[in-house]
Amino acid sequence: MRRGRRKTVCARAADPALLGGRSSSLAGKETPVDAALARAFVEALQAEVNNGGFEQFFFNSAGDRTRETIEALSAIGAHHTASIVRRAAAKFPGGLPPEDRFARQRLLLDRVSPDSDAFSEEDAAFLEHREDLEALVSKYAG
Q1: Which pLDDT value is given to residue 29?
Q2: Do residues 107 and 95 touch, judged by C-beta distance below 8 A?
Q3: Residue 113 near residue 92, CB atoms below 8 Å
Q4: Confidence check: pLDDT of 64 > 50
Q5: In angstroms, what CA-CA distances link 116 with 53, 56, 97, 119?
Q6: In the chain, where do the E strands start and end?
Q7: Would you say 47 and 62 are in contact if contact means Cβ atoms under 8 Å apart?
Q8: In this predicted structure, what is the pLDDT of residue 86?
Q9: 126 φ, ψ to 5°?
Q10: Given this model, what pLDDT does residue 30 score?
Q11: Is 48 helix (H, G, I), strand (E, B) or coil?
Q12: Distance between CA 16 and CA 3 in Å, rounded?
C-alpha cells in the first residue's frame, strides 16, 4: 500500500463537487488521491461519457473537475483511459477546459466543438472499455 493514501468507502455515483478535495499538478509530482474522490470522479466520467460522450462530460458539472479526473484515473492505474481524457481535454485552449462550467460551455459551443463532432475519436476509444475502471478503483480503495 502506498503511504498517505486513505482508504475510504464512497456511495456510488457521488457528486465529486460535493466531496471537495485537493488539486495537484498533472505534470510532475504524484499526489495521493483519496479513494472516495477517485471513485466519484471515475463514476461521473463513466456516467457522462457512456451517456453522451465527452461533449456531455465537458458540458455538465463533471467537467468542472477534469484535472482531478485525470489524476484519479492515473492514481488507480487506468493510464489508457487517462490518456484518452487528456487528449479530449487538450482540445481546449491552454490544454485543459476551464473549471468554470459556463466559461467551458461557451468555449465548447463556440470554438472547441461547434458541430458536436470534436470528440468522436476519444468517444470511440473510451467506449472500447479497454480498462475495467470499477475493478481498478475497487483495488485502489483496498
Answers
A1: 44
A2: no
A3: no
A4: yes
A5: 10, 10, 16, 8
A6: none
A7: yes
A8: 98
A9: -65, -45
A10: 53
A11: helix
A12: 23
